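Re: the multi-chain job from yesterday

Posting the exact lines I submitted so nobody has to dig through the queue logs.
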Amino acid sequence: MMPQVTEAIELSDTPFFPQEEYQCGPAALAMVLNEAGVVVAPADLVDQVYLPTQHGSLQVELLAATRRADRIPYLIEPTLVALLAELDAGRPVLVLQNLGLGFFPVWHYAVVVGMSPASDYVILRSGIERRKQSRATDFLRSWKMASNWGMVVLSPGEMPAWANPRRLLTAVAQAEPMLSIPSRKRAYRAALNRWPENITARFGYAHALHAAGELTAAEGNYRAIVNQYPRHAAALNNLAEVVADRGCYTQATEIARRALAIATQDQPALVGPISKTLHRFPASRDDKQRCTQVESVSPGG
Amino acid sequence: MSLLGLPVVSLAAPISTDALIQLDQRGQVLSQIQTQLARDDVRAQFLERGVSPVEVDARIAALSTEELQMLSMQLDELPAGGSLLAVVGIVFVVLLILDLTGVTNVFTKV
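And the result, structure tokens for all chains:
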């Protein structure tokens, strides 16, 4: 049942912060954030993740605080093998454990930093112990009762050990509102490099380019999507907005109208947003100087 | 450029990547109204649970729309990792006994 690990792994450089009362959340999060290059102390995180009446921290708030630090929280697959893969890649894993029983749960966050030879022991930064050796069976039981929940902190552009496109792109998209624009570009660019045919990755990249003011590149990427999927209403909508920002209002209106017609048939959820887009375009003339034809980006670009 | 030669401020709010993913996976997107309702509800629940009014909006802003929806329905049932000291009274005694007999690892070194 234990995977055969022939060599010990221990990420001994992982910072350690002893927890204060009830505050394993801030302590554990501070450890993985510092490891990912964010200089932050547990005390700085208390206001971000601690719920006073519950005497603890919710898992989703650890994700939220990670995003606020311009990093991407990635939930690993709920298996020991996935956890070990992250350790192998040099990333410590923040886990939730139930140290009590099913009906008397005692929830606790710790950071897994290693596994000993023969896979007998898991090494954790936990509570006030810098190096807690937990029997693998005990760790797995406590982790299983927490649904094998674990997360790693990715720097934008970094890929997890087992990069699943849907999981990764969901993680990036949910972090997106909190990320800096360069971080958004880096994250989606990396996804596009890894999965060049992935439309969501290209869409996210185009959106980031638009936010960065790189209108030509944004437009090229949206046009690449639309060339492949002419009925992609969301891409058409966003393309219209980029085209409008280049001063080509006539063309933008035409594209948005096309998007609206398609949405009315295929994607009713988008009818509202696209209608709003149409209403935004000023009824002024095209800016002939700025408005020039743009080539679409090739899939490798 | 507008007719007056002044730059036109773009009021663009493109469809987000997150919205696209929701659409692809579920065929629908949480509306702005649904999201706002969830946000308001979670805000109230957070304030009731001791989050400071100064912090609450920043904390909520970093949660995804799906996370907000989930929280607004299930907040009290979710694990709140705190630690060993979150145990009181009879639960403490029960767990101490279980720990000493090796059933749990709350207090004893493994």
